[in-house]
């Protein structure tokens, strides 16, 4: 299991709620990326922590990982970055993204734990 903590929530994050998209980034995110991202503490995972059938949890809300893009683990390891879609079956998963279910936007707060 990999655990990290929300340290900042960009002012434009809620604008992506309608798209059912949440963007995570580690602390090295640029100011432009910080505006649209949930920033979290980040230490390089020792293995690919994002797997189909695995769990993603933010705060009290738990999701099942349905699909994992081909670059998702590498991007997460290097940058703490991943795009999370809370929807099923609409399109192919993008390389740096995952798709989770259920299709429910999480309540977001600084200090929340994120686990994979």
From TrEMBL:
Report which residue ranges the record marks as coiled coil: none
| Gene Ontology CC: one annotated term | cytoplasm
On this chain, the residues bearing Phosphohistidine are 40
Which Pfam families is this protein grouped with? Answer: PTSIIA_gutA (PF03829)
Q: Which InterPro entries match?
A: PTS_IIA_glucitol/sorbitol-sp, PTS_IIA_glucitol/sorbitol_sf
Give an example GO molecular function: kinase activity
Question: Which GO biological process entries does UniProt record here?
Answer: phosphoenolpyruvate-dependent sugar phosphotransferase system
Which PANTHER family does the record associate with it? PTS SYSTEM GLUCITOL/SORBITOL-SPECIFIC EIIA COMPONENT, PTS SYSTEM GLUCITOL_SORBITOL-SPECIFIC EIIA COMPONENT
Can you name this protein?
PTS system, glucitol/sorbitol-specific IIA component
Q: Which organism is it from?
A: Enterococcus casseliflavus EC20
């Amino acid at each position: 299991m990999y655990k990290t903590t929300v340290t900042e929530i960009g002012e434009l994050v809620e604008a992506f709620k309608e798209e059912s998209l949440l963007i995570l980034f580690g602390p090295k995110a640029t100011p432009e990326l910080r505006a649209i991202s949930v920033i979290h503490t980040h230490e390089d995972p020792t293995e690919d922590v994002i797997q189909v059938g695995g769990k993603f949890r933010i705060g009290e809300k738990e999701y099942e990982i349905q699909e994992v893009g081909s670059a998702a683990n590498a991007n997460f390891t290097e940058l703490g970055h991943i795009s999370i879609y809370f929807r099923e079956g609409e399109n192919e998963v993008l390389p740096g993204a995952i798709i989770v279910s259920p299709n429910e936007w999480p309540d977001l707060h600084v200090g929340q734990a994120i686990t994979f």
